[in-house]
Amino acid sequence: MLRRDFLKLSSLALAQPAADRLGLQTPPVAKADHTLRISPVTVELDRSHILSTIGYNGSAPGPVLRLREGKPVTIDLINDTDTPELVHWHGLLIPSEMDGTEEEGSPYIPPHGQRRIQFTPGPSGTRWYHSHAMAMDDLHKGAYTGQFGFVYIESGNDPGQYDQELFLALRDWEPFFTGTMDDTDDDTHDGPMPEKPATLNTDPGGLEVGSMTYSINDKALGSGEPIRVRQGQRLLIHFLNASAIENRRIALPGHKMKVIGLDGNPVPTPQMVDSVFLGAGERADVIIEMNHPGVWILG
Ligand SMILES: [Cu+2]
Fold it and tell me: How far is the CA of 228 from the centre of ligand 1 (A)?
């Protein structure tokens, strides 16, 4: 054995745990660029309302992951729960094996197991990640839990001047089964609407899912820190409707929003609007010029 080889071997032996020493064929494992750990978390919507759910890296939503378009990343997915999980990358064009969807053939992350994935992020823009484990009739599973977070894929193209950048996910919690399809939040219809429900549903329950608990990120209306701005500042807000069940309209009274991106993709002709309406999973990137001093409720 050459001295050089001996040094190589001994440094490997030092770097690896005892169990690997016998084989030596396992190369030292490089650290992943990002790690998402799936585990039980609590969400404090406000002081008197604390939920128990499953989240990423100890919180819900999970961390904002900033990736570079075209630059390969390695992500460790660690499942600290008792059920198989899938992390789906919503809006990314990546191989189905990495995409985290059962129907496309991505392998599950086993209970108390882990998976390392590698992909080349793209296209650029506001994307998100969430559990794709099928909940079926279990409202404590998959997309009903706190397993969601933003992925922002940078292209190097400046989205325009702004003073503050915010990632705000609209979310509902504590879902329940109901016999009524309650879509009164769908206010996109013109003209008078029929009284709802048109016929009284006398079923004891149903398979529609409703919710009465709402938040932006992890905070309910009136709790959490306000967004503080100075007059004339420009906010870049990335909105995501991270709900599995509800459409949402969001507005900032006294201000207009300039929509520069929809579902993460730049819009050809940015428009000024009073509010944006987002279906489940949709995103909007807006610029708001803070030109009306005061206390305003974004909601
Ligand atoms: Cu999705």
Answer: 31
DSSP-assigned letters across all residues of 97-119: HHHT-GGGTPPPB-TT-EEEEEE
- Judge whether 117 and 75 are in contact, CB under 8 Å: yes
Q: What is the pTM of this model?
A: 0.84
| Per-residue pLDDT at 248 | 93
Q: Residues 123-160: pLDDT tens digits? A: 999 999 999 999 988 999 999 999 999 999 999 876 67
73 CB-side CA count, 13 A: 19
List of domains in the chain: 34-154 (2.60.40.420), 164-185+203-289 (2.60.40.420)
Q: 282 C-alpha to center of ligand 1: Å?
A: 9
Centre of ligand 1 to C-alpha 85, Å, is: 14
What single letter denotes the amino acid at residue 77?
L
Residue 14, C-beta contacts closer than 8 angstroms, at least 6 positions apart: none
Question: For residue 117, how far is its CA from the centre of ligand 1 (angstroms)?
Answer: 18
Distance CA 74, CA 31 (A): 8
The whole-number pLDDT of residue 159 equals: 61
89 closest CA partner among 147, 19, 31: 147
The pLDDT tens digits of the residues spanning 261-285 come to: 999 999 999 999 999 999 999 999 9
